[in-house]
Design brief:
The protein is built from 14 helices and seven strands. α6 packs across α8, α10 packs antiparallel against α11 and α12 runs antiparallel to α13. The chain is of the alpha+beta class. The C terminus is likely disordered. Strands 1-3-2-4-5-6-7 form a seven-stranded mixed β-sheet, sandwiched between helices. The protein folds into two domains: about 160 residues, no CATH class; about 160 residues, no CATH class.
């Protein structure tokens, strides 16, 4: 199951404007809300109080077989209701004809009403692509075709922010695929032979410099990291004070610093072996969560827990994501006055403001 948070809204300045009264526009915006074009999926789109004109949590799941409809519906509704949504839109994408999923949509709608979150719309669309047909459940003479998906306001807004929308969930997951096994085994040997985590003041300062230097290198040239650099970064992030200080790079989201830090964490997720990979994956999950990309955050956090099933930060963030906690409520993790900041501002890209796009 995928959960996403979005700033998408109508009637709220500075946010992505999506017309909730036009079902075609809402359907066309889905890839830009969840980060990829879902297929054979069911989505619950939460509408935030006080008027229901803001999109809140979006929960996606696979279309279930007939014997799993009830538990899948319960999972989806339980996740959505924790976000405080005042209403919801049910969307079925693909999975054959609309009628094949009418019973499932009815189960979801009844559960939503039972928990006090009335369904605002219930729709089926063959696929999220320009000109694809869509129809409503429970309403006659309700349907049409999608507008040009890549030309919507949501598409333009997300593109202007540098966000990438993937053609599928699988394409997004490929970003996290590791480098070759030989490199991982080589680095695992180097990490095993290296000294263990040292939390002394001198060690923390040294490890902070390692992270800062890697950010500068990637920003200046995008050069590939060497084995020694990857191992050094793995050792640095193994020091909890350094790892926690790295959370500050994600706040505020969308800055040049946040984007460059996310690039470094993504690189390390691919280049570090387990269990050291868990630290970078947790940071990647937090950074993606902070900018509202719940789908990618969920993938990164799952990656962290595969590398280290007992990783506390990844467990906490995954629980927050599953509960629909808004990204803004997690910002204090990166602003915590008790965490010594890495002071990224001005250190990342020589000659440029850290906030420059």
């Amino acid at each position: 199951m995928t959960s996403s948070q979005t700033a998408g809204a109508t009637g709220n300045g500075g946010q992505t404007r999506i017309n909730l009264r036009d079902p075609g526009q809402l359907l066309a915006a889905i890839p830009y809300v969840v980060g990829f074009r879902p297929a054979d999926s069911v989505l619950l789109i939460g509408h935030r109080p006080p008027r229901g004109t803001l999109i809140g949590l979006v929960v996606r799941g696979d279309l279930p077989p007939s014997d799993l409809r009830a538990p899948q519906a319960e999972n989806l509704v339980t996740t959505l209701v924790t976000s405080g949504a005042m209403a919801a839109t049910i969307v079925v994408v693909g999975g054959g004809p609309k009628q094949a999923h009418e019973e499932f949509v009815t189960i979801v709608a009844e559960l939503l009403r039972d928990v006090g979150v009335p369904p605002m719309h219930a729709m089926w669309v063959s696929e999220i692509s320009s000109g694809a047909p869509w129809e409503c459940y429970f309403e006659q003479d309700c349907g049409g075709v999608l507008p040009a998906v890549d030309s919507t306001v949501a598409a333009a807004t997300m593109a202007s922010k540098g966000a990438v929308t993937f053609d599928s969930r699988e394409a997004m997951e490929k970003l996290l695929e590791p480098v070759g096994e030989a490199a991982l085994r080589r680095r695992a040997r180097l990490l095993k032979a290296a000294p263990g985590p040292d939390s002394s003041a001198d060690s923390v300062r040294r490890h902070r410099r390692v992270v800062q230097q890697a950010l500068v290198k990637l920003a200046a040239s995008g050069a590939h990291l060497t084995d020694d650099e990857v191992v050094g970064l793995g050792q640095a992030l193994a020091v909890t004070r350094v790892r926690d200080a790295c959370l500050a790079a994600a706040v505020p989201p969308g800055t040049g610093v946040a984007r460059q830090a996310e690039r470094l964490w993504l690189t390390l997720v691919r280049e570090l072996p387990a269990p050291e990979r868990a630290e970078a994956a947790a940071l990647l999950g937090y950074t993606a969560y902070a900018r509202g990309d719940g789908a990618f955050a969920g993938m990164a956090l799952a990656n962290a827990l595969r590398a280290d099933p007992k990783h506390v930060l990844a467990q906490l963030l995954q629980a927050a994501l599953g509960s629909g906690i808004e990204p803004s409520r997690l910002a204090d993790l990166g602003r915590n006055e008790g965490v010594e900041s890495l002071r990224f501002t001005g250190d990342v890209s020589p000659g440029r403001s850290a906030d420059a796009a």
